[in-house]
Amino acid sequence: MPITPDTKNWTWVLEKPCPECGFDASTFTAKDVAGLVRENAAAWPATLDRADVRERPDDATWSPLEYGAHVRDVHRIYLYRLGLMLEQHDPLFPNWDQDETAVEEKYNEQDPDVVTRELVEAAEAIASGFEAVPDDAWQRPGRRSDGAGFTIETIAKYYIHDPVHHLWDVNKTR
Fold this sequence. Notes:
Blueprint lengths: L11 H4 L17 H16 L15 H24 L10 H7 L7 H20 L9 E3 L5 E3 H21 L2
């Protein structure tokens, strides 16, 4: 299942290594995120081409296909949020229930080839979006529906942990 950090203290992702996957956002800048997105996206096709792509290791853990579909949607959601932050002052992002989306969209029944293509395309779109952020816009604010506030800089570094962590998730037990 997706990681669910404490929404009141989400900044841990920016300040120290993840205790599970080891990802450390403090070691790079927001301008580095585009390259990290592309590097991560390049690893997903092999992951989604595995024979066990639909197999869950246990009842509480998503299959590689479910993780891949989730990561695709994370790229899309954050591209949308980035656009809001560039177009509006301090927008409030619509709520996104990732678990509900997984069920409604039947992640584990989707075609792995389609998910792969869409994930890579969505990753390129968000990578290009971050590359296009003007230097004077990195501090523009935005807020999640739970009230957590971000700047474009912090949301970029927060967001990239998700696809990195989920690639680690699907490869740690296999």
